[in-house]
Amino acid sequence: MSNPIHPSATIGEGTTHGDFCVIGANVQIGKGCKLGNFIVIHEGTVIGDHVRIDDHATLGKLPMKAANSATTKEQELPALQVGELCIVGTGVVLYRGAVVDAKVLMADLCTVRENVTVGRGTIVGRGVTIENYCSVGRYCKLESESYLCAYSTLEDRVFIAPGVVTSNDNFVGRTQERFKHFKGVTVKKGGRIGAGSVTLPGVVIGEDALVAAGSTVTKNVDPRTLVMGKPARPVRAVPVEQLLENQGWVDA
Prior knowledge:
With 252 residues, the chain is an all-beta fold.
């Protein structure tokens, strides 16, 4: 069969799909969606109206648990949910247990793990990884090849530049003590992290704060403050014209 679709799957009016798509049991796909070739949609996945899914994407994948995994747990996960008007790029992997709101762009080769929420209008760039137990707000931008570690929180309108790395384990994989202290990064509303920066576990980046490119952030960053360096240190206030309140953006 070139298009094996489980008989319990429901597909909305006007939805089209290419060759060799696999659509599992109890999948719900809304109206007017466009599915490319060689797509796998696992059991129970719910997809809203007018969603575009490009070739070789996998939706609703179950997590893999290594014997010594620190963050992946054995659990019953709810079905993946993808909101209306989303775009899912080529080779994207979305795990079961994630919830993606409407109008989210997930560019080619990105990964969104289980127990993750992604808010409306957010852009998840090419090759981005969002690990498990993360919350990403509305209208965020995670640019190409950035890495959001497990147990991280991004509030609304956060900007993560290309190549940013976050971390959640101050023990760097050693001792049993580390299991008590896993904590990712928290970036408050409008916070920005520049290209190639590294943020250490548990750091809080304040509202409308800015981390300069190439910095290593070892301590919390005050709101509306520009920090830079290795380690990052306060330099000056964020320019007034760059503050979120002065951008004139309207949620849509």
